[in-house]
Design a protein that fits this description.
By secondary structure, the chain is mainly α. The chain has 7 helices and 2 strands; from the N terminus they run H-H-H-H-H-H-E-E-H. It is globular.
Length: 220
């Protein structure tokens, strides 16, 4: 099955167990899928490649986020540790030479064991990274994850390869991505939701931690 479908199932199951600890279907999902992901990581891993697949695709940060949440729900330190290490790896791959967040470009997809290409960059990747780094912070208390979350959120506001904001301060909209020629000026629902959900996470972090910049500038 799809790794990302399994990851989203794990995220939903972890949330359900938090609300209803006795929910058996959720527990069965978390007892099945995480070990499958560990096995896939072991198969695909190389010294320079610490990832679950031999390619990078979309919504990458959801995979380590799901392992961290599953580990928290099941009290399994091995899952949390694996989620943190793979998240650190994908964050490194999503960093430009200038130190800014650089979403894995869509031209990267289906290229085995290849370094990420620069374009096209999509809001989905920044939002997934914000979410995953926020979860990593709750699991560890390590402020480096706050910095990673803020760096990914900054991509929406113009801290990106083209120095162009994707977020619209006036109405909370979001352009669909960065292309070599500039902004993709469509504003699809996925992009708008990516911005607004990332905004909620950053705002929540800023309320609880000094030094995390607020995100109200991009809220509708």
């Amino acid at each position: 099955g799809s790794l990302r479908a399994q990851a989203f199932a794990m995220l939903g199951a972890a949330a359900m167990l938090e609300a209803k600890p006795g929910h058996e279907l959720s527990r069965s999902i978390l007892q099945r899928f995480p070990d499958m992901h560990l096995d896939l990581l072991a198969e695909a891993r190389r010294p320079e490649w610490q990832w679950f697949e031999i390619v990078l695709a979309y919504d990458n940060a959801r995979l380590p986020e799901a392992l961290i949440r599953a580990g928290q729900a099941l009290d399994r330190d091995d899952l949390v540790a694996c989620g943190l290490s793979t998240l650190a790896w994908i964050c490194e791959k999503q960093t430009s030479p200038e130190g800014r967040f650089r979403a894995v470009g869509t031209e990267t997809f289906h290229r085995p064991y290849a370094e990420p290409l620069q374009f096209d960059q999509q809001p989905l990747e920044a939002q997934a990274t914000v979410d995953a780094c926020a979860v990593a912070y709750t699991a560890t208390g390590d402020a480096k994850w706050l910095a990673e979350a803020q760096r990914a959120y900054g991509w929406f506001l113009g801290a990106n390869d083209l120095d162009l904001p994707l977020a619209s301060v006036a109405d909370g909209g979001c352009f669909d991505g960065l292309m070599p020629t500039g902004l993709n000026r469509n504003q699809g629902a996925e992009s708008i939701l990516a911005l607004q959900l990332a905004n909620c996470v950053i705002s929540g972090l800023s309320q609880g931690v000094d030094g995390v910049a607020g995100a109200t500038r991009a809220a509708a």
